[in-house]
Automatic annotation (TrEMBL):
UniProt-listed GO biological process terms: DNA integration
Single GO MF descriptor: nucleic acid binding
InterPro entries documented for this protein: Integrase_cat-core, Integrase_H2C2, RNaseH-like_sf, RNaseH_sf
Top-rank lineage group of the source organism: Eukaryota
Pfam families registered for this protein in UniProt: Integrase_H2C2
Protein name per Swiss-Prot or TrEMBL: Integrase catalytic domain-containing protein
Annotated SUPFAM superfamilies: Ribonuclease H-like
Domain Integrase catalytic: 162-325
Length: 353
């Protein structure tokens, strides 16, 4: 009799453990090989809050009722009864949740103070609430950091001198430098900015401006060629780093044509110039918010830049490069729910670019 009660107690304990795992997002599934497969679905805490608190918003509950009665078509209920508007999560107006989303999407290390337009396009990929665009504009306008660091950006005057449009990713790049920065503990005093003209994806490499050309070549192989291969052409200014015989011979060996931008014609290297303007704004914002050496923040500034909406390609550079947005702790993108798979994703991204 004792053995039976002991078994029952073990069953109850096992049930409690399984329930706790479920609360953590862990599922146990039957494996085709006569075992048990453990599957863990991790979600942003913000996304979890949005899904779990929809029932607290009376307006969203009315919309759910309308969906059940088939009175509206633009809203739907997905898995676990989660309300969506055209596929986007409906955010309840409770517990300051909308304000929390705005704070995460604007001031975290993964976003770094985007402007209102960028921020709206980023958030609308996954979230919806009535008046969201207006709320974002008001939030950004109140940001004291943005008021301090955002420089007014004005396009070059006169007629543009267009250069050929690239046909594939990382085949044609722009290069430039941000110089005159405070020297860090790693002795960096400049940033090498390398931009793919097709996807607008970018690398920000901390350097010492006095590096010899061979050191730039080593860094170029390590950070660019390793990931993207050798481009067909490079557009840069006539800085000493790019006009040296070694650099020209090095690029010739890679099969890359080196082109130089024309003085007073920003159209030839305007992509790098615009990127530098954004980079400088982000550097100033990071120093105000997070302190420390600027090269400590550079990896996340690069991530933020590549995972933010760009109007010139109507998507984020990560999406143009890899076929979908990169997931971040902010919860901008739910991997697996909206992702295209297979060759369709390449076609869609290329068509948009």
């Amino acid at each position: 009799m004792d053995s039976v009660s002991h078994v029952e107690e073990q069953k109850r304990e096992l049930a409690r453990d399984v329930h706790r795992l479920a609360q953590l997002g862990v599922r146990l599934e039957d494996s085709p090989k006569e075992g048990v497969m453990v599957r863990h679905n991790s979600e942003s805490s913000v996304v979890v809050d949005v899904k779990s608190k929809q029932h607290l918003d009376p307006i969203l509950m009315e919309l759910k009722e309308s969906v059940l009665n088939k009175a509206i078509e633009t809203f739907s209920q997905g898995k676990y009864g989660v309300l969506r508007h055209q596929g986007r999560l409906c955010v309840p107006d409770v517990d300051g949740l909308r304000e929390k989303i705005l704070e995460e999407a604007h001031g975290s290390r993964y976003s770094i103070h985007p402007g209102a337009t960028k921020m709206y396009h980023d958030l609308r990929e996954i979230y919806w609430w009535n008046g969201m665009k207006r709320d974002i504009a008001k939030f950004v306008a109140r940001c004291s950091n943005c008021q301090q660091v955002k420089a007014e950006q004005q396009g070059p005057g006169g007629l543009t001198q267009d250069i050929d449009i690239p046909t594939w990713k990382w085949e044609e790049v722009n290069m430039d430098f941000v110089v005159g920065l405070p020297r860090t503990c790693r002795q960096h005093d400049s940033i090498w900015v390398i931009v793919d003209r097709f996807t607008k994806s970018t690398h920000f490499l901390p350097v010492k401006i006095s590096y010899p050309a061979k050191d730039y070549a080593k860094l170029y192989i390590k950070e660019i060629v390793k990931l993207h291969g050798a481009p067909l052409s490079i557009i840069s200014d006539k800085g000493a780093q790019f006009t040296s015989h070694f650099w020209k011979s090095f690029q010739s060996g890679l099969g890359t044509q080196v082109k130089f931008s024309t003085a007073f014609h920003p159209q030839t290297d305007g992509q790098a110039e615009r990127t530098i303007q954004t980079l400088e704004d982000n550097l100033r914002a990071c120093v105000i918010d997070f302190k420390g050496n600027w090269d400590d923040h550079l990896p996340l500034i690069e991530f933020s830049y590549n995972n933010s909406y760009h109007s010139s390609i109507a998507m984020v550079p990560f999406e143009a490069l890899y076929g979908r947005r990169c997931r971040s702790p902010v919860g901008w993108f739910e991997v697996g729910e909206f992702a295209l798979l297979g060759p369709e994703v390449v076609y869609e991204s290329t068509k948009k670019v």
